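for the recovery benchmark. tokens below, seq after
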């Protein structure tokens, strides 16, 4: 993996590190890691690493070195580079690390053009690179602006704050769209859990549809949770909405006795298919659903979830279209 290149001789100095989207360097040199994913944050804390969930939580540091792990999305990488640059002392080193499959060569070229320096190639092996840039008086990489998205639900349109680096940051994904279109199959719930809420599309739409309901919106990505929290406030829903930064695999569910659970589970970790978070969410349904409660689960048509869901309660296929399936689980 590209991260192991940081441990090559001469790559890191002996000084503390600010590390964005990883903790390999902080584990050996000390400092602070920025880890938006709750699962990674928990693992880092278990290893004795100091970590925060958001780039904005880095409080005016003056680090001698910073590491940014190249991200799949360009905007997330840009946010990491901007945060690192702002928190480096003059003459400090900014290390960009990543693999060829993520476009490290192009990312290094863009950053070099933006900073007006070529960068120093420290390591080039295993189809990955580590490149160093010097912190100068240059203003540095511009931070990206989080987008807003429009959501149609219940015959109305409303706007949600999105976040850099989250799933489907600039539009409602097709799975959520399908579930939104079929919310009407449920009759007036009072206690809702949006499990894997992202920026809150499903949970906030449900609260607008049913003004007598309360909801907990939970997600593994701290950036998504922050956006959902902001949108709930913007829409005047804060009194009926709680948000939770939550990892389904390692932690207990953040709510119970729910009569409606909305689930659009992730099935990728970076580029790999990973069904563990979805299966952990399904196991949590046993603890979360009240007797007579309903879970609406949307998923890619090819994913093999029916057997596990059928063991929780009565399973009904609501629809199968455009590559996605919507299932209802009713707990007796």
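predicted aa per position
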């Amino acid at each position: 993996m590209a991260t192991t290149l940081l441990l090559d001789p001469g790559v890191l100095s002996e000084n503390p590190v600010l590390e964005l989207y990883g903790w390999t360097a902080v584990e050996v040199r000390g400092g602070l890691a920025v880890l938006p994913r709750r699962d990674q944050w928990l693992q880092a804390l278990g290893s004795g690493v100091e970590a925060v969930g958001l780039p904005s939580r880095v409080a005016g540091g003056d680090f001698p070195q910073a590491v940014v792990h190249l991200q799949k999305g360009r905007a997330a990488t840009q946010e990491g580079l901007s945060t690192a640059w702002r928190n480096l002392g003059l003459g400090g080193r900014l290390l960009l690390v990543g693999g060829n499959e993520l476009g490290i060569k192009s990312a290094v070229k863009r950053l070099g053009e933006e900073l007006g320096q070529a960068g120093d190639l420290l390591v080039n092996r295993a189809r990955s690179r580590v490149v160093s840039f010097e912190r100068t008086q240059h203003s540095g990489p511009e931070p990206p602006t989080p987008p807003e998205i429009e959501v149609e639900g219940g015959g109305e349109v409303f706007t949600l704050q999105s976040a850099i680096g989250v799933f489907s940051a600039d539009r409602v994904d097709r799975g959520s769209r399908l579930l939104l279109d079929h919310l009407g199959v449920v009759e007036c719930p009072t206690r809702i859990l949006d499990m894997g809420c992202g920026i809150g599309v499903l949970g906030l739409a449900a609260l607008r549809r049913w003004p007598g309901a309360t909801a907990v919106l939970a997600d593994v990505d701290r950036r998504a949770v922050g956006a959902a929290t902001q949108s709930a406030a913007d829409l005047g829903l804060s009194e009926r909405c709680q948000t939770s930064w939550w990892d389904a695999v390692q932690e207990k569910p953040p709510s119970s006795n729910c009569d409606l659970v909305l689930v659009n589970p992730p099935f990728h970790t970076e580029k790999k298919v990973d069904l563990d978070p979805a299966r952990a969410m399904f196991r949590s349904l046993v603890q979360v659903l009240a007797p007579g409660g309903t879970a609406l689960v949307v998923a890619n048509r090819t994913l093999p979830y029916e057997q596990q869901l059928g063991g929780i309660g009565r399973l009904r296929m609501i629809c199968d279209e455009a590559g996605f399936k919507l299932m209802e689980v009713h707990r007796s």
